[in-house]
């Protein structure tokens, strides 16, 4: 589970960073 959660978190963080970079 830890690995799955980490992967999901990384994906979400990546999307957030992309949104912030666009702004």
Per DSSP, what share of the residues sits in E-state strands of 2 or more residues? under 5%
Report the helical percentage. over 70%
H/E series, N to C? H
- How many DSSP H or I helices? 1
* Strand runs, count: 0
The residue ranges in which pLDDT falls below 50 over 5 or more consecutive positions are none
User: Radius of gyration in whole Å, from Cα?
Assistant: 10 Å
SS-derived structural category: mainly alpha
Rounded mean pLDDT is 87
Q: What is the CA-CA span between the terminal residues? A: 33 Å
Identify the overall geometry: rod-shaped
Biggest sheet, open or closed, and with what strands and sense?
none
Detailed description of the structure:
This protein is mainly α. Helices cover 91% and strands 0% of the residues. The longest helix is centred in the middle third of the chain and has 21 residues, at 2-22. The mean pLDDT is 87.
Question: What topology does this entry show?
Answer:
Layout (H helix, E strand, L loop, with lengths): L1 H21 L1
């Amino acid at each position: 589970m830890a690995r799955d959660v980490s992967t999901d978190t990384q994906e979400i963080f990546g999307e957030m960073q992309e949104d912030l970079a666009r702004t």
